[in-house]
Structures are given as structure tokens and as C-alpha cells.
Amino acid sequence: MKVVQGIVASSGISHGKAVVYVPPDLNFTPRSITHVEEEKRRLFNAVKKSIAELGDLKEKVLTNMGKEFAHIFRSQQTVLEDDTIINEIIEKITLDKWCAETAVKEVFTAYFTMFEELDDGDYNKARMADLQDVYKRLLRNLLGKEDVNLSDLAEHAIIVAEELFPSDTAMMDLEQICGMITERGGITSHVAILAKNLGIPAAVAVECATERIITDDEIYLDATDPEEAHVYINPDGTIRQKFEELRAQYEKRQTLLAQECHLEPVTLDGRRITVSVNIGSVEEIKNAIRLGGKSVGLFRSEFLFMKKKNLPDEKTQFQAYKTVAEAFRDGFVILRTLDIGGDKPVASISIPRETNPFLGYRAIRISLDQPHLFRQQLRAALRASAFGSLKMMFPMISGPNEVKQILRIIEEIKGELDGERVDYDKKMELGIMVEIPSAIFMIDALLKHIDFISIGTNDLTQYLLAADRMNEHIRDYYQPYHPAVFRAIARIVDAAHARNKWVGVCGELGGMPLAVPALIGLGVDELSMSAQTVPEIVHVIRHTSYQSARRLADRILAMDEESDIKTLLQRTQNDTKE
């Protein structure tokens, strides 16, 4: 028996036979050309064929899986219809005399480099899979190779692959699949989103999965732990029995969570914690509400800018913000203004390449530097606030000067809207994200100007610890449970509560069941997370005592090592389960 580990992309537990997916070989020998027009003709034929294939896939997926996934292939078609990308490829062919395959590879590789700079937890990184999918399809058609067919699968198949792209999964007989295992991908990858929506257990970042597993191996996939997935390959009878016992326990717990997810998130001793969802598009609304989301703690507005070839105008933004505000009328929606920069490229906004984009030209710095963009977004948000409880917050704030500039612009826009007799919420709440250490030390000055705070623990952790989230060489230095992180949160909460302002957490820590009791004890008022996490977090809150959580937080604040904090939190979690 062999056992391998990975990251849980979609929770669950399953047993089936492995189907190892090997995509077509797309290697080629670069060559120079003399007949430019012929090479351009080859490119246009491959583009035309690829667009047609994507159209067929879109129709197939629309019938079998619905509009949400069919939209993926329409988006991929737009990549090939984008004159910017195609013209870049043609330029390589014409000026550099490269063959079409080399030109396509060079242009797409430049785009891949931009997206690789994104953190694995950033939902925008999932778009890289679409670009890679388009690239592979275009290159395959240039090379004249056929695609691998995954439509004829045996019952209870567990797909094992180096990576799965949208077009791979579109051809699968999903009714026969009971699990997915990939060597690459993260918790926001296409395969993770698909698996979660279909309720299929999935593990990603499983090292050397396609080497250690062969087709028809018996696989037991345990993705019941919040963080680590375990893959058992051809296990013995003892493991099988334990696995079936674990499956029964998991299914019983899932039934309980489904019953609780729409209940009030109130602790055993009566303290209410607001549970919100993080979303990146209006397409995510339905699933968020289904899983118990009543408010949106983080609406990532940049999705509108990153999904389109041209900048969205005020009308487009207004309609999107209005749609979300109306959908969550029983709660609220916190709109984060444009958060792009060196680590989140937008084709239609000129952003310089930087050696350290996380410390560079991004987020509120771009908004204040390009006021035409900022004012348009603020107008759209203020107008949408007339249709629900819409709040605004601003990312990457370092001190009160930035907030004062923002408030002056908002007052000017309010004056414009008043003059135009346009309705808006005149008491619309404004907040900031605390993710830069200077904001912690300036928290009292900042609180004079804002209504609430949302802590972005992902960036805050990397800035506090000087540990790049994306750097594999210093992975051990990026510690979400580091004592400095909890002490920073405590300082923020205490300062805010002293001024009767509320505090939320919208980073990954807010959706980690292990961390939630500590955050409750520190006094955090709101937790925002991915929709799939809501049922588990509601359960944790409803089985936690606020008084015991306060005692837990006090113990954590006295600790000096992350390992000690994690041990205490795990012990607390186990005691709660018992």
C-alpha cells in the first residue's frame, strides 16, 4: 500500500478506480520561417478551428452542466477573438520570422508569467487555467493532434492528472466520477471550483501523483480534513475498514452541517458572530445563498476589470453592484474598491512591471493615482447603495492621509449626485482593510474617519513576517497562526471597540475552523469566507462558548511560538468534537 498527501480542494471521502489522464504531447522543434503569409495562414486556421471547438464545448456543457460552466468556454473564445493577443503572435511571426508554434508559445508564456505572480489563494489565479487551456488547444491544432477523450468512463472513476483544465473536465462523464486528484492547482483552480459545485472530493498539489498511481489502482481518497488530503493506493483490509468507518462519520456530520447552515451563528452563551461570504462575481450569488451566506464581507470588484478586454464603464459597474446588493437585502454587501497591481494584471490598465509588486503600485495607490477610474467606480457604488445595504472599503491603506483623500473625492461625488437628483445611501458605511503593519500603529487615527475595519490576514501575515506568500523557498516562514498575527488582531479589535466600530476578518484565517474560536475570543465581530466554508464555520460558532473562547485567546496572546498555538487550537477543536 502507498499513501500520498495533498491539499484539499473539495472536501469529502470517496473510493474508486484510478483513471490516469495523459494529455497529448505538445512538444515541437522551434524553427525559423521564410514564408510569412503561409505561417499566418496556419495560425488563422488553427484559431478558427479552436474557436469552433470551444463553441461545440459550450453547447455540450450548457446542456449537461448549466450556464455557469458554459460561460467558461465563451470566455475562452474571447481570448482567441482578442485582436491584442493575435496581433502579438502575428508580430512575432512577421518580424522575428518565428514559426506559428514558437510565436504562440512566446506570447502566451508572457501572460503566464504575469499570472504566476498571483498568490495561490487569489481567485484570479484560476483564470490562468483558462489561458493555459486556450494555449494548449491552439498549439494542438497547429500541430494537427487529436484530443484525448474522457467521455467514456467506468463507474466510480477517480481521475488522476498532472493538471485538469476546463476543456478536460467538460468532456468527462461526471456522473461516473467520484474523485479528482491533480499534481498542480490550488483551492481556487477550475478543478476545485467544479468539484465543490458538484460535491466531488478533490485533492490538488499531490506530488508525483501520475507516477505513483496507475490506471485501475484502487484509490481511497480522504479529503475530510480542512487542510490535508490523504490518498491511499491499493490499501489493505485494515485501512479499508477504518476508511468505511470514517465515511460513515463524515456523512453523518455533513447531514448535521446541512441542517445548521441556515441557523443563526450564535455562540453557546449568546454572542452573535456575523458570517459573510467572499465572492468575485454575480455568478457566485446563488451558490453563496444556498450554502447559508446572508451577507457579503468581501465583494472583489476587480473581477469586472480582469474579465473584460475593455474597462467596464459606470453603467456596467453599477448594474453588477446593484445586482449583488439586491440579492443580499437581508444582510449587507461590502464592496472592496479596485484591488489590482503588479500581482493582479489588467490588460486595459497600464501598470509597470515591478521587482516587488506586493510593495508596489497597486490597490488604493492606483485608484488615487488614476482618479478617472476611481471616481467612476465610486459613482457606480454610491448609486447602487440605493438598492440595498451596500458598504465600501478600501484596500492597502497605510495611514490617515489616504483615507482623507478618499473622503474628499466621495464628498465631491455626492455633491454631483445630489445635483443630478440621483438616489444613494447618504449614510453609506465606509471602511478600510488592515493589511499593512503601519495601519496597525496608526489605527486610532484611522478610526476617526471610518465606520468599520476588515482585516486581510493573507497580506497582513506576509507583511508582518516579511515572508512572500508565493516563495516556495520560504514557505515555512509564512505562518498564519504566528503569535504576531493574533497580537495584531487583538490590537486592532481593542482600538475599534473602544470607538464603537466593528471589525471583520476577510482573509483565509476567517474561514479556518481551527482559528475561529480564537478569533471569537479576540472579539472579532464578523468572519467572511468562501461560501463552501460557511456551514462548517456556523457549526463551530454554535458549538463554542464566548467565555471559553476569551480564555483561549488570552492563552494564545501569551504564547511565543506558532507550533504551540496550533497545538492548543487542535486540542481545543478535539475537545469540542468530543
What report would you give on this structure?
It contains 23 helices and 15 strands. With 578 residues, the protein is of the alpha/beta class. It has 4 domains: 2-23 and 149-236, Phosphohistidine domain (Glucose Oxidase, domain 1); 36-143, PtsI, HPr-binding domain (Enzyme I, Chain A, domain 2, Orthogonal Bundle), CATH 1.10.274; 258-270 and 457-525 and 535-578, Alpha-Beta Barrel (TIM Barrel); 274-428, Alpha-Beta Barrel (TIM Barrel), CATH 3.20.20. Helix 1 crosses helix 5 (126-143), helix 3 crosses helix 4 (100-116) and helix 4 runs antiparallel to helix 5. The model has no long low-confidence stretch (mean pLDDT 88).
Gist of the model:
With 578 residues, the protein is α/β, with parallel strands linked by helices. The chain is 48% helix and 14% strand. Helix 4 (100-116) runs antiparallel to helix 5 (126-143) and helix 20 (516-522) packs across helix 22 (546-557).
Net shape: globular
CATH secondary-structure class of the largest domain: Alpha Beta
Strand order of the largest sheet: 8-9-10-11-12-13-14-15
Rounded to an integer in angstroms, the radius of gyration calculated over CA atoms is 25 Å
Give the topology, please.
Layout lengths: L1 E9 L1 E10 L14 H29 L2 H15 L1 H14 L3 H17 L9 H18 L13 E5 L4 H5 L6 E6 L7 H9 L3 E3 L4 H4 L5 E6 L4 E6 L3 H24 L13 E6 L5 H6 L5 E5 L2 H4 L7 H14 L5 E4 L27 H6 L1 H14 L5 E5 L5 H20 L10 E5 L2 H5 L1 H5 L4 E4 L1 H9 L17 H16 L3 E4 L10 H7 L3 E4 L4 H9 L3 H12 L4 H16 L1
Parallel strand pairs: 2-3, 3-4, 4-5, 8-9, 8-15, 9-10, 10-11, 11-12, 12-13, 13-14, 14-15
Antiparallel strand pairs: 1-5, 1-7, 2-6, 6-7
Helix pairs in contact: 1-2, 1-5, 2-5, 3-4, 4-5, 12-14, 14-15, 20-22
